[in-house]
Design brief:
CATH class of the largest domain: Mainly Beta
Distance between the termini: 82 Å
Radius of gyration: 32 Å
Helix content: under 10%
Number of strands: 28
Shape: rod-shaped
CATH topology of the largest domain: Jelly Rolls
Largest sheet: 7 strands, antiparallel
Number of helices: 1
Order of helices and strands: EHEEEEEEEEEEEEEEEEEEEEEEEEEEE
Low-confidence stretches: 41-53
Oligomer: single chain
Number of domains: 3
Strand content: over 45%
Structural class: mainly beta
């Protein structure tokens, strides 16, 4: 069977359609590069080189019956001084498809509303031809590196879907938190604050920015006197501690002041004990992301002595 020959000009057209760009040319020699770093090197099965002492190059390529390729050209690697001889190399399949794998990073790590954020999918792998972004707020974009800003604080799911040159796709989801440029830690009100009962909460708080704390606000259930009667926040390693004790049903009794100002450092884990009265609102989860960090439940003991590991008081530290 006579195999078809592929000219160098046709090869250039093929690799250009595959997304490669010529980055260097000298005479008849060209260098091609793809933005994702891939090459078109095949697996060498055998080769034989003769003649020459300088350059080598390929003139034509023919596909073989085993779906490999024979490349013919010249070489100056061995032989008479100043001369060149034929070069023939047998290779396997030139380009194997790699299943695409979506990946991305974003910066800054602490997202502030109305500030430009950079989303970068350069770490994705494969022969990617399309990058599609869904930022979880109704906005979309395409491209490897894109900018976006969130107009409102909240927790958003960012969806990146990539597609390769064979129309295979892959998707990755990441949760991002867009914050107000504030200095308080706020769990907010849960959608369903019940069931609720007074008791003692033990857990941890890990802020994602530095926060200065002077008082504790407890979100009450509707038409109740929900409040905190006692609270302590501390970190044993750095030796910081502050305590708040309730003054009774006077003035704004949902707020309780601490005995001294405590600075919660970004990324540091702080322990808390909060003893509540009446019916405070409750987040029924063992871990809650907020716009300014995480709050976790270690154990909650209610007024009847029953223990839970998924009750977090709805509070605000400021």
């Amino acid at each position: 069977m006579k195999l078809p020959l592929i000219s160098g000009k046709d090869i250039c057209k093929i690799v250009s359609k595959l997304g490669f760009e010529m980055v260097h040319r000298k005479g008849s020699h060209t260098v091609w590069k793809h933005e994702d770093g891939r090459t078109t090197n095949g697996n060498e099965i055998w080769s034989k080189t003769v003649g020459g002492a300088k350059n080598d190059g390929g003139y034509s390529v023919a596909q073989t019956s085993d779906e490999g390729y024979i490349i013919t050209g010249y070489t100056c690697l061995y032989g008479a001084e100043g001369g060149s001889n034929v070069w023939l190399i047998k290779v396997g399949k030139g380009i194997e498809n790699i299943s695409p794998t979506a990946s991305f990073t974003y910066s800054p790590e602490n997202l502030i509303i109305n500030k430009t954020m950079v989303f970068d999918a350069a770490s994705s792998r494969g022969f990617i031809t399309n990058y599609k972004w869904d930022f979880g707020d109704g906005s979309n974009a395409t491209g490897i590196i894109v900018n976006h800003s969130y107009p409102l604080p909240g927790i958003y799911i960012v969806n990146l879907t990539i597609k390769d040159n064979q129309d295979f796709t892959n998707t990755i989801l990441k949760t991002v938190i867009a914050c107000l440029n504030t200095t308080h830690f706020d769990t907010g009100s849960p959608a369903i604050p019940y069931p609720s009962i007074m008791g003692t909460h033990n857990g941890t708080i890990t802020p994602n920015q530095t926060i200065t704390v002077n008082k504790l606000y407890t979100y009450p259930c509707t038409d109740t006197g929900g409040h905190s009667e006692y609270a302590m926040i501390w970190n044993e390693t750095i030796g910081e501690c502050t305590i708040a004790e309730w003054a009774g049903y006077i003035r704004d009794y949902h707020n309780t002041s601490f005995n001294k100002t405590l600075t919660l450092e970004k990324g540091v884990i702080y322990n808390y004990i909060i003893s509540t009265g009446s019916y405070p609102q409750i987040h029924h989860t063992d871990a809650l992301p907020t716009t300014n960090g995480w709050i976790n439940c270690t154990e909650f003991t209610d007024a009847n002595g029953k223990k839970y590991d998924d009750w977090i008081p709805a509070i605000k530290l400021e």
